[in-house]
UniProtKB/TrEMBL annotation:
<dbReference type="GO" id="GO:0160136">
    <property type="term" value="F:16S rRNA pseudouridine(516) synthase activity"/>
</dbReference>
<dbReference type="InterPro" id="IPR018496">
    <property type="entry name" value="PsdUridine_synth_RsuA/RluB_CS"/>
</dbReference>
<dbReference type="InterPro" id="IPR006145">
    <property type="entry name" value="PsdUridine_synth_RsuA/RluA"/>
</dbReference>
<dbReference type="GO" id="GO:0005829">
    <property type="term" value="C:cytosol"/>
</dbReference>
<dbReference type="InterPro" id="IPR036986">
    <property type="entry name" value="S4_RNA-bd_sf"/>
</dbReference>
<protein>
    <recommendedName>
        <fullName>Pseudouridine synthase</fullName>
        <ecNumber>5.4.99.-</ecNumber>
    </recommendedName>
</protein>
<dbReference type="InterPro" id="IPR050343">
    <property type="entry name" value="RsuA_PseudoU_synthase"/>
</dbReference>
<feature type="domain" description="Pseudouridine synthase RsuA/RluA-like">
    <location>
        <begin position="65"/>
        <end position="195"/>
    </location>
</feature>
<dbReference type="InterPro" id="IPR042092">
    <property type="entry name" value="PsdUridine_s_RsuA/RluB/E/F_cat"/>
</dbReference>
<keyword id="KW-0694">RNA-binding</keyword>
<dbReference type="InterPro" id="IPR000748">
    <property type="entry name" value="PsdUridine_synth_RsuA/RluB/E/F"/>
</dbReference>
<dbReference type="InterPro" id="IPR020094">
    <property type="entry name" value="TruA/RsuA/RluB/E/F_N"/>
</dbReference>
<dbReference type="GO" id="GO:0000455">
    <property type="term" value="P:enzyme-directed rRNA pseudouridine synthesis"/>
</dbReference>
<keyword id="KW-0413">Isomerase</keyword>
<dbReference type="InterPro" id="IPR020103">
    <property type="entry name" value="PsdUridine_synth_cat_dom_sf"/>
</dbReference>
<dbReference type="GO" id="GO:0003723">
    <property type="term" value="F:RNA binding"/>
</dbReference>
<dbReference type="Pfam" id="PF00849">
    <property type="entry name" value="PseudoU_synth_2"/>
</dbReference>
Length: 232
């Protein structure tokens, strides 16, 4: 939300009311700014103004950032008619303008960042900023040296013109590896393993840039990012 802001837009957003109900309430003198009743929808307010709705203060919380340990079965969308979303796991006010910074597939688990700061999320997710995303990958078939070398050099994905950027690969066991990529193509990790003749059976993101998934967060739990984590 940008300031100065229209009174009806501000109240609708903070009170989470439809704009029509907000305007009806303003007409009924439910809204006040700095102690003065306001009946004009387009009255301009600043972030410093004391805005009240039926006597209750409405506070703009500003930019917020949350780390979530995403469980399987949840989609990274604000709304979905078929599946629960990651927003169903957050008990926070005024989430209508939040988005997921770096989405995960419905069956992929691990680190998800949810914020209302578009500029910040672009810096951590856009490929040009070279922020690596790190995944733990479990595969259907053993991982051989040729596959690891191919992933490190870049592979050809189906329906893509260019090779993927070189990945950082650490083999953990015959059927598992740690894979870091700085792109975000559709289903990229799964398609990369398919390109080397394998299949992903489990996928878990543990890191985005320098932000590690908090090991104290159980599946489905979340917390605000720290000031140190916000530094890009």
């Amino acid at each position: 939300m940008k300031f100065p802001c229209r009174l009806d837009k501000f109240i609708s957003h903070i009170a989470e009311l439809p704009r029509s109900k907000t305007r009806a309430g303003i007409k009924r003198k439910y809204a006040s700014v700095n102690g003065e009743v306001i009946t004009s929808f387009d009255y301009s307010i600043t972030q410093e103004d004391d805005v009240r709705w039926q006597g209750e203060p409405l506070v703009f919380l500003g930019k917020r950032y949350f780390m979530l340990n995403k469980p399987s079965g949840y989609v990274c969308a604000n709304k979905d008619d078929l599946h629960p979303t990651v927003f169903d796991l957050l008990d926070e006010p005024n989430m209508s303008d939040f988005h997921v910074a770096g989405r995960l597939d419905i069956d992929t688990t691990g680190l998800v960042i949810i914020t209302n700061d578009g500029d910040w999320s672009h810096k951590i997710t856009a490929p040009k900023h070279n922020k690596f995303k790190t995944y733990l990958v479990e595969t259907q078939e053993p991982i051989d040296e040729d596959a690891i070398l191919a992933l490190q050099q870049g592979v050809q994905l189906h329906n893509e013109k260019e090779l993927t950027r070189p990945a950082i690969v650490e083999q953990l066991a015959s059927y598992s590896l740690r894979l870091s990529i700085c792109e975000g193509k559709y289903h990229q990790v799964k398609r990369m393993l398919a390109a080397v003749g394998n299949k992903v059976v489990e996928l878990h993101r543990e890191k985005i840039g320098d932000i590690h998934l908090d090991e104290n967060l159980k599946s489905g739990e979340y917390r605000p990012l720290t000031d140190a984590e916000l530094i890009l």
